[in-house]
Amino acid sequence: MSPRIHLPAGWVTFVFTDIEGSTRLAQLLGPDYRPVLWEHRRLLRRTIVATKGAELLTEGDSFFLAFADASAALTACLAAQRALTNHDWPTPDATPRVRMGLHTGWAEPRDGEYASAEVHRAARVAAAAHGGQVLCSAATVQHAAPLPSGASLLDLGLHRLRGFDDRERLFQLTAPGLERQFPRPRTADAVAHNLPTQVTSFVGRQAEWAELRRLVENNRLVTVVGAGGSGKTRLAVELAADLVESYPDGVWFVDLATVVEPGMVACAVAAGLGLRREPGRSMMDTLVEYAAARRMLVLLDTADAQLPAAAEVISQLLAGGVGVRVLATSRESFGLPGEVVWRIPPLSVDSPVTGAESDAVALLLDRATAARGGRRPDPAEWVDLRRVVRRLDGLPLAIELAAARLRVLSVGQLADRLDDVPCALDTGRDDPGPGLAMRHRTMQANLSWSYQQLGAGAARLLRWLAVFTGPVDLATVEWLLEDDQLDPLSVLVEKSMVLAEPDIGGSTYRMLDPIRAYAAGRLAAAGEEQAARNRHVAWSADAVRRLGSGPDGRPVTLSLYAFDPLAGELRTALRWCATGGSARSGLALVVGLDQWWRERGLAGKGRLWLSQLYDRSAETGERIPDAELAVGYHTHSLHAGADGDFVEELRFSQRAEAVARRTGDAGLLARVLSSRAAPLVDLGQLAQAEQVCREVIGWAQRQDVVDDALFAVLSLAELLWCRGALDEAAELLGAARPVEASRPAERGRRTVDMLLGLVALARGDLIAAHEHLSVSLRSRMAHGFHRRACDTLQAIAVRCAAGGDPLTAARLFGAAQARGAALGSVPGINGDYFARWQAQVHGTLGDVTFDRAYGEGTGLGIREAATVALGVEHPDLAADSTRFAAGVAPSAFTGPLEVASPPGAATSCPECAGNHPGRSRARLRSGEEAGQVGLRGNWRIGRQEGQVGEDAGPVTAGVQGVPARSIRWALEADALDGLDVE
């Protein structure tokens, strides 16, 4: 440098410049690099002279300049960048990209140079810049007034410059003609990451966080897959922030949501890593070379925006450097070798066993508190909070949007509006537009983006699946559209629009409620709703029919448990039938669920559906055949009786009779008339009820449809028991047993055994009562007749009281009445009988003891109460029993002998004249011999053993003093705990 150049003193602004990637540019251009380098120097010197800057040093492609005025220095840099950009270079690749850095400090020149730390600080500012970028320190900003025309300074925050302990606030010069978007500055920050700063707390997900961390630590590529709004990004960012110290070369976040061209994926990743395109070299090559020797974690967010291109970048990154790991979030997997796909579950909506709130409720509480200005929802609102999160299926985005709605709605109001989730959460929000960057502003935008990525087949399947409320299997999916749907279903699962839930019996598939609501809207918009929902109704009717049949198509004992998983689907089908579909189809569904409504305490709901279907039929003019209408009226009558509405019960019973008579079907009329006594009993007219029962039975016998009058027989037996005619009641019930056993819809209720148990209690025969009631309760619980099981529990409570166990009786009374009340039970004909026994138990125990035992019972569930009841000791096994005492005459026996058979054996049952395979029990009546009914095998009582064969004598032969009733016969195996004969 010439000593005649004047060097400024005092507040001096130092400027350093150099060409980014000059070595690569020189290799690319070869001999042509020198003209480019000279032209670059000429352009910079021209701007320096124009702004009176002093050139201290030029070496290769670098300049070191000093300015007495900070504003002039910024003006020189702006002019130089514009000159370089606008110059006509030989080729685009020959364009030099110059980075510039400025810093202002107090300095005095000596011997034509500056010996000051401010010079080194300026050099570090320049080193932090990228090609085409102008960075300056806060000191330069303080002295640079005014700024060049049209220019402004962008605050890039605090950064630690290499070699300096403190942090420097850096600013970027922006102006027309200059690039604006650059990677983060190349500084020596203590925290090597660019993870987005979260403004809300992270709630829940402890188990998922731990599982995902384990996967990332043990695998090089982990893809977090889930539906839009399921919280993939938030969980991945939270985990990545905790892993920063594990990666010396940083954790780098790259959002691909705004990348619109596949070729730009590598550029987006490079920008996240702070890299710029090098002349004459692909961005992918630059990426691979940079990553090769580094240990870092790359977090690729929304990778499904450019899935194939992202997969290619990931493959090359992982192949190029063993220290690179990738954590990606996407709605579908990449399908790359070594990829671990982890599907993020929705937030838990079930409270943990610790008693704390579920993650979903905790999130809604946190966000609702913020939305309401720090006012936490009242505990009275928590029930509705749980309703909301269940309705939203624990989807985090939906919960966040729901919390915002709580600024203007109560939690209950919001819960009531969630039938259409997108509408309820998005109403009043601005249209976010089609851009991916706005996809989390509304549920509609989020789901629309996913929907638009589907092909025609997958989109149609998604729409049609919206008619289902719960999970479905593959056969149901194919039944719905009558075609092979495996390929489109696979697409929906891969894109996280449908959840696949593997099971030992085969996978099932379901949609989260917010997705289902969106798909239902698309179904209506496509004009396919009528066809799809009618198809769903047909499927529902077929499902109900199949529940009454075994694999071979033959009728099986009705189990109400089979209806429970279908309840949501059937309600959805009924809603359509009552509003837009066929009333006749809806009526068939309600009737198909006949006993389920009452046994689950939903008789009122059943009546409401029936009323809506009557109205629908009248509105559309759809004709319902008389036989079907009669059954509907009959079902309505039974529901009304279960609800205690005895006037309506009688009215619909009469309607059912009138319509049934028009059909000329004697069996149908017998079934309708069989229930005519029920409203009379409910109204307290017992004599009239008994007369009606006898008339119906007599008429049915004359018409040869007596089996269809079973309900009248059972009602008559109950009336006879009520007035003490026990022998006649027992005879009726004995004749009714084979009829009940032959009818799949009735035999699971074991009403005959229930009533025989009551008869035995009235006779004081605790052994017979115990056995009949145990059989009835076991069968009712096994087949889901919970409301009827409550009656049996009360009867067993009476048996306990009569057997000297008032504490168990009190517990069972409490359980039966609490569970019965929950199921809407009303006292029946035996209500007074149970009440008298309960009062007796109360008097025996006293207030304090009774109340404690009764209260314990009210806390039992129906299954727990049944376990207590079935655990009551058999009277034969009681310690003080005299039934095994020597000298008791066998002739004292007047009841049946039970015989147990082992697995695979077929035992002849004299009570129903049928054979029962498997572990069952047959009975021998008094005076019968084993050989008479084909029984042979071994018997054992305590230590006494014996054999019986076809030619055996009386059943008590060889068992001195032991009543025949107490003998259990075990055929070829110890099978004394066999199942009851049905």
UniProtKB/TrEMBL annotation:
Residues 13-126 form the Guanylate cyclase domain. It comes from the Bacteria. Pfam families: HTH_77 (PF25872). GO terms for molecular function: adenylate cyclase activity. GO terms for biological process: cyclic nucleotide biosynthetic process; intracellular signal transduction. PANTHER family: HTH-TYPE TRANSCRIPTIONAL REGULATOR RV0890C-RELATED, REGULATOR-RELATED. This is Adenylate cyclase family 3-like protein. It comes from Salinispora tropica (strain ATCC BAA-916 / DSM 44818 / JCM 13857 / NBRC 105044 / CNB-440).
